[in-house]
Amino acid sequence: MATVLRRAARLEFSGVLSLFSASCRHGRPYALSHVAFNDRHLSTSSKVKVDLDNSNGIAVMKFDNPPVNSMSLDFLTEFSINLEKLELDKSCRGVILTSAQPRIFSAGLDIMDMYGTSPEHCGAFWKAVQDMWLKLYGYSKITIAAINGASPAGGCLMALCCDYRIMADDPRYSIGLNETQLGIVAPFWFKDTLLNTVGHRTTELSLQMGIMYHAHEALKIGLVDQLVPEGKVLSTAVETLGTWLAVPGHAREISKSMMRKPTVDKLLANKEADIKNFVSFITKDSIQKSLGMYLAALKKKKA
Ligand SMILES: CCCCC/C=C/C(=O)SCCNC(=O)CCNC(=O)[C@H](O)C(C)(C)COP(=O)(O)OP(=O)(O)OC[C@H]1O[C@@H](n2cnc3c(N)ncnc32)[C@H](O)[C@@H]1OP(=O)(O)O
């Protein structure tokens, strides 16, 4: 069993590394600097800052991709590599995800990776989204989302993948899978992640209407677990992780896997088909037109 798990971990890792080279092939410069996790250490990679505190084994991953922490191919690749490294690092016991950008946890997937790009790029991008989800939803260690700002679509998905969600109690911030509002459809594994958290009826309403929930509504439907003042989001996440660490790790990990494995296996069995579906859907003229209109509306809002 242990050998199988080790082999699976190695395969996943090589998957992420191949993703890394796919990102390089797209011609974007990508410098993965040396990341040491041996003592309290800040990674120097660019879009995701990692700080592992060896005194308690808690790593904080801060999204730092201005202006809105959109999840581009580069961001996703860097995120998955760092997450993988932390999983393999015995001194890390749990991971907190949060944002270094003011008012925004993450604006979700980078629309520019899906708008006006080639089918090949869309395919590589979608594989990176899948790999992020597979790694995070199936993560063996404890994960907590410290949601210190707006969290639409892919941002919400990332938070949903965590074991516990703490959100800033601020009426300006909202969270949800709003894909239908962009004229696109959340795939089955986005749907399953929400369904496993808030139940069938809420997921149905939420997905059809593309609802973005204000913090209080999100707490009410169980989309987030706790609201705290913005200044306390990270410290509460650290405290909460401490409580989770008090539970016998092996039993917790197996329980998590028991709850999530069927959902993870569903995508693993359909990865290639899901990429094909995505590429054929997103490159349709009508869908490109919807994305273009959504982007224009975002810009108009500013004017
Ligand atoms: C089968 C298909 C399935 C696909 C599944 C898709 C999942 C996704 O995640 S799609 C992305 C969904 N995301 C959104 O709908 C969020 C859109 N953004 C916003 O609502 C807001 O930007 C905000 C609340 C996150 C932040 O608001 P604000 O602080 O007012 O900032 P601006 O709106 O002015 O945005 C600044 C700048 O960033 C651009 N931008 C925003 N979001 C994205 C994004 N997701 N991808 C790419 N670019 C984004 C925005 O257009 C502005 O650009 P400039 O005008 O050039 O400065």
UniProtKB/TrEMBL annotation:
Keywords, alphabetical: Acetylation, Fatty acid metabolism, Isomerase, Lipid metabolism, Mitochondrion, Transit peptide
Catalytic activity: (3Z)-hexenoyl-CoA = (2E)-hexenoyl-CoA; a (3E)-enoyl-CoA = a 4-saturated (2E)-enoyl-CoA; (3Z)-octenoyl-CoA = (2E)-octenoyl-CoA; (2E)-tetradecenoyl-CoA = (3Z)-tetradecenoyl-CoA
Major location category of this protein: mitochondrion
Keyword hit for Nucleus: no
GO BP, sorted A to Z: fatty acid beta-oxidation
Pathway(s) the chain acts in: Lipid metabolism; fatty acid beta-oxidation
Record-stated family: Belongs to the enoyl-CoA hydratase/isomerase family.
Entry protein name: Enoyl-CoA delta isomerase 1, mitochondrial
Organism (species): Electrophorus electricus (Electric eel)
Gene: ECI1
